[in-house]
Each structure stands twice: as structure tokens, then as C-alpha cells.
Amino acid sequence: MTMKLKNILIASMIMGASVMTSSAFAANVGDTEAAVLVSNKAGGFQTVVGNTFDADQVSNVFSDKFTFTLNGNYNASGTLSSTFLSTNPIQDLVINGFSLVKYDPVTQAVISTYAGTNVLGSGVGTEDYWKFNANGLTAGSYYLSVNGLVQGAGGGSYSSNVNLAMAPVPEAETYAMMIAGLGLLGVVARRRKAAKQA
After folding, report:
1. CATH number of the domain within which 86 lies
2. Got the DSSP string for 25-77?
3. Does residue 126 register a pLDDT over 50?
4. How far apart are CA 125 and CA 91, in angstroms?
């Protein structure tokens, strides 16, 4: 083998190894799991979900989904917090998104999204705290979506708590009282108009 061919072969091997190495740092280590809904004995449900990432997953991105199905109308509220431990090795996650998504389980198409807000601020070296509120949820398939980056050399973890309360349905008496009140307002307005004309 000539010297020129050896140099080209060595350069190709180094480039190939560097490409393979850099792709390992950008792996998506996310999971899709079924969320367990536990009855709160008041007609609603609660679920607690989360994930833990090891030291060998540092610099990886994650996109976790926790699926569940609703059979009625509910209002939902959820919180999420991640760890930041400054011990050696540092445990830190950077959460980039937290939302509740209604989707079609057959086509996987997103129907609607209820995005969370970052309450504490996000970034390296801080604990993340997110929350969302979603009112008027209807029956269907949903998932909690958590996106982020494993930043700490020691990995990191997060947990989320979501409460689902039955959406209030107006009673028939409420509608009857509203109609009676509007009728009474009409009678008062008519009398005032008649008094002004007289």
C-alpha cells in the first residue's frame, strides 16, 4: 500500500469515528408509557409520573410521553419539577417543555395542546418548575409530554403530578333561575318605559 493511500484510509477512519461519536452525544432517550390514573374518590383522578436519567445519558435529549384516556369531561392541572443537585457529580436536567396533548390514537395526529409555563426559569444549574391548567377537556386520548436535556454529569430526574377534576355541569335549576331573572329584568324595563311615556 502506498503512503498516500494509507493517509487517506487513516483520515477516513478518524472522520468516521468522530461522526459516530458525535451522534452518540445527541441520542434521544425518551420513553412512552401508560400513566396510571388513580381515583380521588370525588369523581376525578390523579397521576404521578416521572423519569430518571443515569450519568451515561449526559448530553442526551429526551422526549417522554405518558398516555391516558378520559371517558368524560374534566378540568386538569399539573406541575412538574426537576432535580438540581450540586453534589459531585452534578445532577441536572434542563426542561424545555411540559404540556398536555389530546391526540388521535390511530393516526397519532395532535388535536389540541395545553402548553405549560416555566415558573422558575430554565437553564443549567437551576431546578425547573413548570405548571399547566387545562379546562374543558372532553373524552378522548391524551398524553403528558415532557421534553428536555440531561445536563448534569450525574444524570438527573423529574416528577410530575396531574389532577383531573370532573368539569362542572350546570344544574337545570341554574338555567331556570337565569331565565326567571332575565324575565324579571324584562318586566322592570317595560314598567320603566311605560312610566316614562306617561
Report:
1. 2.60.120.380
2. HT-B---EEEPPPEE-SSS-EEEEEEEEE-GGGTT-EEEEEEEEEESS-EEEE
3. yes
4. 9
- For 100, the domain range is 29-173
70 domain residue, yes or no: yes
**Separation between Cα atoms, residue 183 and residue 178, nearest integer Å:** 9
Of the ranges 28-32, 161-165, 188-192, the best mean pLDDT one: 161-165
Which residue do the cell numbers 431546578 mark?
A: 127
What would the pLDDT profile of 46-87 be if each residue is shown by its tens digit?
A: 999 999 999 999 899 999 999 999 999 999 999 999 988 888
Residues near 122 by Cβ (< 8 Å), separated by ≥ 6? 94, 95, 96, 128
- More confident: 109 or 175: 109
- Please tell me the distance from the alpha carbon of residue 131 to that of residue 121, in angstroms, as a whole number: 12
User: Does a structural domain hold residue 107?
Assistant: yes
